[in-house]
Design brief:
Rossmann fold, alpha/beta, 558 residues, single chain
Length: 558
């Protein structure tokens, strides 16, 4: 691998560096400009509820309307007066996370961030943006250490502009931080395995410091997302491959990282498995050998297509489009592998394959053995830790190209990434509930009933977060088949209580069936006797959970 610039290449490489830095700067700017341009989606608003320790204070919802302010209150972080208040909120957080399928570290970090900066959309997303910038900086350090400064810059630019990671840099969930823990743990393992061989012996203090980085990042990863256990296996394989003579030292450090996560596993994980068995059901349903095999192939293609090409567009594209993108990603990785092999970069190639392809195959093997489908769950976000390794493989290939092909290939890939990201952030609707909430704002003193066909907390909380905060709004939520009877009973007991009514019909109510034609006709029959339609609109958003029809009614004058 070339570790420097020759005289006749200096101007070329300076121009290439400028291109890479400009791409990184644009990626950072996109993060900053989009901190407030998108609503929290279903899972994100649940993250807020869990992080502020209010999960168990969520109000009971039934056939009787309740003030919207009762729900809005649980989206606020309770006042913490002194250490006792902070500890109480921490206890409430851990009790609430026992009802979630994920470990608590991301929620703990979010709660601490709320104490410092509040709980606005900008404040919450800024935490993820900061973490992503730390990951990009770490990618530069890892790439420079493993290759050279130019290779580090290529790797950092690919990660910064990658559409999948950029979208998770603004997503208030645990997936973005996983990339940081992945890169840091990889860097630490390379240092401890003495690869590349250091010219001077590292001091005991340096080794101890990198050992702490490895232990800390492994523990953090395990307390952020359970499938990070796969990454622990990857690190063990990497350590054995690079320096098998130190296997016991690597094993001791990795084992220590795992042991530090045991206290949560003994208490929280057991409760989560008991309370959220429904999540396991979602990732383990398929019948027939052909169907199972096809789904595994689709999941691998879908994951690589989402990670390396289409990014967050995967939530809107048809499955066939994402799979085709995945096939293109597989072809690219295969081409890079063959080229690096032919060019003699076999040890670096092996490292990249261990970091990117091996964890994917490991997760796939576990899925096949257990009958699960975690690889494709959530468009591949559950194994986002394969992304740095895959990008490193591409960066290795790009770094060994010569002019002018290197500049052409890098420019083309960065242009593709930035175009997809800019299009995703600017062209797709992400303000559905804010838009509907604005229908009510012009007349804040008019009592309004908001009725919709889902009792799922994510939907209720999204309405609460983006609708006006006043005491004149009540909500009535019920499953699709029961909404009309509940609405009828409410209006009969107080026909003049709600001069204005907003009906939201959600296409994917979550945990319940969508509305049938019979259900819709029943609601319309109840409303038509007292109200007239004044405004309506259909929303699609970026996910199936964003699709709903909104209808605003005013009471007929007698």
């Amino acid at each position: 691998m070339n570790n420097g610039f020759s005289d006749n290449q200096r101007s070329w490489y300076v121009s290439l560096e400028v291109l890479l830095w400009v791409a990184i700067a644009i990626a950072i700017l996109l993060r900053l400009l989009n901190l407030a341009t998108r609503e929290l989606w279903y899972d994100e608003v649940l993250s807020v509820l869990l992080a502020n320790g209010q999960w168990n204070n969520y109000p009971a919802l039934g056939d009787v309307p309740i003030p919207l302010q009762d729900v809005q209150a649980v989206l606020n972080l309770p006042d913490a007066s002194g250490l006792s208040g902070i500890l109480l909120n921490l206890k409430r957080l851990l009790q609430g996370v026992a009802n979630d399928p994920h470990p608590p570290l991301s929620y703990l970090g979010l709660q601490g961030w709320m104490y410092l900066f509040g709980h606005s959309d900008v404040a919450l997303r800024s935490l993820m943006a900061v973490v992503s910038l730390m990951a990009v900086g770490s990618a530069y350090g890892l790439g420079t250490f493993l290759l050279n400064p130019r290779g580090g810059l290529i790797f950092a630019a690919l990660l910064a502009t990658n559409p999948f990671y950029l979208s998770h840099s603004l997503n208030i969930r645990m997936y973005g931080p996983l990339v940081l823990w992945t890169i840091l743990s990889t860097w630490a393992m390379l240092k401890l395995a003495n690869y590349p061989p250091a010219k001077t012996r590292r001091s005991p203090w340096q080794l101890a410091g990198w050992g702490l980085v490895l232990i800390g990042s492994v523990t953090a990863g395990l307390l952020t997302q359970y499938l990070f256990v796969y990454w622990g296996i990857v690190l063990a394989v990497l350590g054995l491959f690079l320096n098998g003579r130190r296997w016991w030292q690597h094993g001791l450090l990795l084992g220590t990282g795992g042991l530090l996560a045991i206290p949560w596993a003994l208490w929280g994980t057991v409760q989560q498995l008991r309370n959220r068995s429904d999540v396991l059901d979602q990732i383990g349903k398929a019948e027939g050998i052909r169907t199972i095999a096809l789904r595994h192939v689709q999941n691998v293609a879908k994951t690589l297509g989402s990670h390396l090409i289409v990014g967050d567009w995967t939530t809107s594209l048809p499955l066939v489009g994402v799979v085709l993108a995945g096939l293109g990603a597989i072809a690219l990785l295969t081409f890079c592998t063959l080229q690096l092999w032919q060019n003699g970069e076999r040890r670096l190639l092996a490292i990249a394959l261990i970091l990117g392809i091996f964890p994917l195959l490991l997760a796939l093997a576990v899925d096949i053995i257990t009958g699960k489908f975690t690889v494709g769950f959530g468009w591949g976000r559950s194994i986002i830790f394969i992304l740095p390794g895959c990008l490193l493989l591409i960066a290795l290939w790009l770094e060994q190209l010569t002019a002018p092909w290197q500049g052409i290939a890098i420019s083309a890939l960065l242009f593709l990434y930035l175009s997809l990201s800019i299009g995703d952030l600017s062209l797709r609707e992400r303000r559905m509930f804010q838009t509907v909430g604005s229908w009510i704002e012009p007349e804040p003193t008019v009592p309004t009933l908001v009725a919709f066909n889902s009792k799922a907390r994510g939907y209720v909380l999204r309405v609460a977060r983006y609708f006006p905060k006043n005491d004149q709004i009540a909500i009535l939520v019920q499953n699709s088949a029961k909404l009309a009877p509940a609405l009828d009973a409410t209006l009969k007991t107080g026909p003049s209580t709600y001069p204005r009514l907003l009906w939201l019909d959600l296409v994917e109510p979550v945990w319940s069936d969508p509305s049938t034609e019979t259900d819709l006709e029943a609601v319309q029959a109840v409303l038509s006797s007292q109200y007239e339609l004044t405004q309506e609109q259909e929303f699609s958003g970026t996910m199936k959970w964003d699709r709903f029809a909104a209808r605003l009614y005013s009471q007929r004058k007698q």
